[in-house]
């Protein structure tokens, strides 16, 4: 379910990590919440 979505977010996450290593944790939390809400929305 949404197998392509996590890979896209992971690739963009690695790109952001290379450019902005300071906001890696906040971005990781943001992506985690985004994927959770996305999966919950799809499951409904």
TrEMBL record:
UniProt KW Transmembrane keyword: yes
Transmembrane segments: 20-43
Keywords: Membrane, Mitochondrion, Transmembrane, Transmembrane helix
Protein name: Uncharacterized protein
Species in which this protein is naturally found: Utricularia reniformis
């Amino acid at each position: 379910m949404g197998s392509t979505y996590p890979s896209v977010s992971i690739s963009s996450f690695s790109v952001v990590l290379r450019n902005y290593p300071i906001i890696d944790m906040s971005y990781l939390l943001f992506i985690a919440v985004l994927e959770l809400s996305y999966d919950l929305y799809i499951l409904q």
